[in-house]
Amino acid sequence: MASERDLQIIRVIDLETTGNAPPAHAVCEIGWQDVALGPDGRWDLHGEGGARLVNPGRPIPPITQAVHHILDEQVADAPWFHDVARPILDPWPRRVALAAHRATFEQQFCTPAMTRGAEWICTWKCALRLWPDSPSFSNQVLRYWRKPAGLDHARGLPIHRAFPDSYVTAHHLRDMLNEASVAQLIAWSNEPGLLPRVRYGPDRGKEWREIDNESLARFLGDRDEDVRHTARTELKRRQGGGAVGHDTADWLLL
Fold this sequence. Notes:
The protein contains twelve helices and five strands. The chain is an alpha/beta fold. Helix 6 packs across helix 8 and helix 7 (about 140-145) crosses helix 8 (about 160-175).
C-alpha cells in the first residue's frame, strides 16, 4: 500500500476575490480539495480539503460581496495571501499539478513564483472536450447535469465560496482523470477552449460542423480566442487535417 508521501496528488484550487483583475483586485478566500491516484489505478478525492480567509488589503466592493457574501470585517484580521498561499499551492506530498474550473482566473493570482511553476488543469476546458453534450459548462451546471458519484450535496454549498466550489470541481476532475491521462488534460488546458457549439449569431446552438463556410469565415477573426481557436480547428478539419495557415477567410469563400 502506498504511503502518504508516495501519493500522486492534484490539488484543486478555488479563489474568492474582490474582483477580476489583479493588482487592482486581490484574494479574500482560498479553498482546496485534493484528488489522488489510488493503488487500484483510479483517481479519487483525498483528505478533507479546506479554506482560509485572506485579508485582501482593500475593501470588498458590494457587487462582489453580493456574489460570495464575504464581509470586510470577516477578513480584517485574516493573514495576507502571500503568507498562506505557498503551503496551500505547493503541499507535501508534492502535487503533480494544480487544477481549477476556468483556471486562467486562478492563475492571475497564483503566480508561478507561488506555485513553483506548477502545471495547471482547467476543468472547464477539459469538460468541453470530454462532455460536449452538457447544456452548459459552468461548475454548477456540470454538477447537476452529471450528478458525480459521491458528491455530498450539502458539502458542496454554498456556491461561490472557496471550499464548496473546489469540492465540486474535484469531483469533475476525478472523473476526467479516470477518462484521460494527466498529460492529456494538461495539454488541453494549455490551449484555448474548443467549443462544442456556436455561442451567438444566427447559428447559435449549432455544432460547428453544421454551419456553412461563409458563417465559419466570420468567426476566424473573432475577438474571443476560444471562438477563433474553434473556428480554425473546424477549418482544419474541412481541409482534411492539414495545417490551418489561413489568416483570412479567403480560402473558404473560393
